[in-house]
Amino acid sequence: MLTFGAVVITLVSSLTPDDENVCATALMQHFVSVLRQLPIAYAIRIETVNQVLQHSAATGNTDAPEAGDRLAATMARSQAAAAPPGEALPAPTFN
């Protein structure tokens, strides 16, 4: 049975919306170039103030339809837990 976890990365910065879009596009391209080399199913979602970038792939020896369904469910759960695009996230705390 396949299991899926989630890695959530939150980047809070003082970038302008235009700079956010440039960085988001570059990050997406980098993540995809790294992850496509691995025999895994994955989904990436990057939200900026005014755009949402998404990419997913199912590869390797996975049951693609089942993997895709579970991956979609995992993405839906993470989206429900995340703040909507443009909504302020809580400030990070450092110990």
Description:
This protein is α+β, with helices and mostly antiparallel strands and 95 residues long. The chain has a domain at 17-81. It has 2 helices and 2 strands, in the order αββα. It has a two-stranded antiparallel sheet with strand order 1-2. Strand 1 (42-47) and strand 2 (52-57) form a beta hairpin. The protein starts with 16 loop residues before the first helix and ends in a 14-residue tail after the last helix. The mean pLDDT is 74.
Q: Count of DSSP helices? A: 2
| Helix content class | 25-40%
Instruction: Report how far apart the termini are.
Output: 38 Å
Record field, number of beta strands? 2
Radius of gyration (Å): 15 Å
Tell me which oligomeric state these chains represent: single chain
| Shape by Cα distribution | globular
Structural classification: alpha+beta
| Low-confidence sequence ranges | none
Strand order of the largest sheet: 1-2
Q: Please provide the ordered H/E string of secondary-structure elements.
A: HEEH
Q: Beta fraction of the residues?
A: 5-15%
Mean pLDDT: 74
Main sheet record:
2 strands, antiparallel
